[in-house]
Amino acid sequence: MAVRIKILFWLLLTSTVGWSQNFDGGFFAGLTGNQIDGDGLGGYDHVGVQIGVFAKRTFSDKWSARLELQYIWRGSREPVSDTSGLYRTDLHQISIPLVAVYHWDKISVEAGISGDINVITSEENIYGEFGPDPPYNTFVLNSIIGVNYQVTEGFALNLRSHYGLTPIRDTRIVQRPPGFFNDWIKGSRTVTMSLAAYFYF
């Protein structure tokens, strides 16, 4: 019996070590440039931040996957001008991205999806803050396309483009022209460009 326990313990230990060799983890932080498709304001005038942790699973020399948990600050802002109403909206979200990564030397490309939960939402203009009307959806899905550059073994830079697969709001101020995208894209959707530094443990 004692021998069987020792063998079982040895198998569990060696299998755990083998699996851990394929996993990496760490944390990241960066900036976001944001807008909302459908609110009538163009340009990445809203600047936010992102910070989080990640786990990376390596499948081969070319392929890996990364699961992340992050706080991300999205929104939209009207450019300041003589006629500006100083409108802005802020979306503070908890996001869970999952991306597949294809590696080529120090450069890799990624694509995936994220589930985002709106924790705090706010809108304001020159007269002050007011309640979102209509309200923002609590849960949304975003698409992710990005590129990574591995600066050192423990440090990488990541540039991403995010676009809402589901609407952040069910209404649009600016309607799309007739055609395929008018039929497919309903409501207002977040659009984000992000730049982050990834640090591996």
Automatic annotation (TrEMBL):
Span of the signal peptide: 1-20
Keywords of the record: Signal
Domain Outer membrane protein beta-barrel: 19-168
SUPFAM superfamilies: OMPA-like
InterPro entries per record: Beta-barrel_OMP_2, OMP/PagP_B-barrel
Domain of life from the UniProt record: Bacteria
Record flagged with keyword Transcription regulation: no
Protein name (database record): PorT family protein
